[in-house]
Fold this protein.
Amino acid sequence: MNLSQTGTTTNPDIIQNPTLAQWISIDSDGKILLRAGKVELGQGISIVQLQIAAEELDVPLTAIRLVAGHTDVSVDQGYTSGSNSVQIGGMALRQVCTQVRQLFIEAASRVLNTSTEEIRLHNGIFSAYPSEKTLRYADLAPLVDLSMPATGLVAPKKHTNHTISGQSIKRPDLNKKLFGAGFIHDLELDGMIHARIVRPPSYTAALLRFDEAARALIQAMPGVHTIFVSGRFIGVCAVREEQAIAAAKAIRSQAVWQESESLPNEQPEQSWLRSMPTQDSVVASTSQPAHIATQCIEVNYSKPFIAHASIGPSCALALWSGEHLTVWTHGQGSFPMRKELANLFDTTTDHITVIHADGAGCYGHNGADDAAFDAAMLAKVAGVPVRLQWSREDEFSWSPHGSAMSVQINAGIDAHGKIVEWNHQTWSHTHVQRPGMAPGLRCLAGIHRDPPAPEVPWTDFALTAGGGGQRNAIPLYDLPNKQINYHLIAESTLRSSALRALGAYANVFAIESCMDELADLAQQDPIEFRLNHLTDLRARQVLQSVAEKSGWMSSNISATATDTSRGRGIGFARYKNNGAYCAVVVEIEVTDRIVLDKIWVVVDAGEIIHPDGLINQIEGGVLQAASWTLKEALHWDQTRVTTQSWDDYPILRFDETPSILSVHCIAQQDSPPLGAGECAAGPTAAAIANALRNAIGVRMRDLPLTPERLAQAVMAA
């Protein structure tokens, strides 16, 4: 095959980066340089990228040098988000590496004067019998032109021939992280100073006074290097970190702010969302002949604002060299950040380098991006490298949060227990305010400086892009008549953006809770009821498998007959309806609170490249969702966010984790890999709520399911 011809590919990452040389090159030392855009956020993508490349290039893992998220070196794969790192990003790498391998085989055949069919490639060594001559990638690199388009015309290896992909190989990033040197917080630059930001006390607070006398007093404090004030943006730099913290505290005591009541009243069931102006859209609408509904329900569900609550607070480093800015960040998108930085400083992207460094937890659009813009602002004024770290109070008060949501479902079943009516309404703020994704500045530095950036109109992800608040609002079940509408809240309240699973967490919680409520009406077992509405064979297999693994049919009913404080619940979804299938069974004990006992999870994520990594992702997703479901909620008054510390925002503790957390992955090695990182969130929430109903007959529809709310629900029942 002559690979100089132009082919076509539907992979969006290759369309964005169409030539092979953008992805791969051979270094002078013979190493293969792999230039990836998807970055390590704790999900283990770096080892998966290495496995994919090593498998297709047929080289040892040690032969590859991976550079990810570096705007001077890497390809632009946008944001590392949406569980697309393997499903899209990894498959782009596979296409590229497969084609590169074939080009080098063709070059080897010319050098060895034989056909491509006679070339053998093993561990990076090309040979052809009976010749004793061998060649390596570095030997052939001068003969191979990688400036040609990535075509997608060459078939990758069959999975039956894989020796690297599909193995749980040790992750290369863990040693440093386990021993305290693997995170952005550990980076040091020569001559670096430390910085803190003094935020306004509330979203609309105006700075009335921070006079020169106070400024001079603080400037004279030990180690203080730079104080910068622009509009509502106040930053301070000092030689040592504790000096910057002390100076920020002093500024906070001297600055005078004027606050106003701009926030709605907090309501546990989030009903305030429905009273606000909305941008309405139809997500799905189908109408088919069906039986008449004989039993109907109208039910309402809600979730609160949820914080990212990363254990490590946001951090960034910035350095100006003349007119060139370099930023180190643990954000999810180096290239979009570069675009926003260029906008912030009114320059071009070729004057900016953004380098990804691993952070201590990232679940979407947290404070990492804003910290990077803060550091860049202060480094420009200070004239030396700046390391900036947020406080815990900054994280809770100012980072974007997962939006509060309200869901109403009207549904009806016929005399045979079949769902014949389904109406789903979702109210939510936006789940996408990421920098660099749309015109205008979205970073806090741009919003707070003088002059402030103009207000950016509210938008959300379209369903074709995975959806935002309406993500997973369309059930995977076979429903003849459904009407699904999305009501995007058009006015700002608390700052919101992408948090793991976006709207899928609330929508799946509502759908799967409602499925159990309808199963009760139909007097059917909850899993049987779901199977009666599913023709998707892979979905059915996941549900049947989790029933088998958990012993559902043999013990679910009898458990509650003998012990009314224990129960089991099921939750199921296919993430974004195009990602991984996930079914969760939770067994709980109810005392004065909900106690997690056992959790069984079955996942179909298509081809599995790193089995242990996939299990890690599911386990982490289940535990985080359990924490959201049982504990987490941001609180505010009409002026400001009142959640300020871990005391105000409890999360799941080690001693509250289940005694059994069993994850079973159904291998589908002949199928494409499916995004799995966010698939467990909604099913876990629904399974816990359904287990509560199974245990004590109480249905709770408003998250989180705290002990206080449980007591109220029991009293009401």
Q: What stands out?
A: The first strand starts at residue 24 and ends at 26.
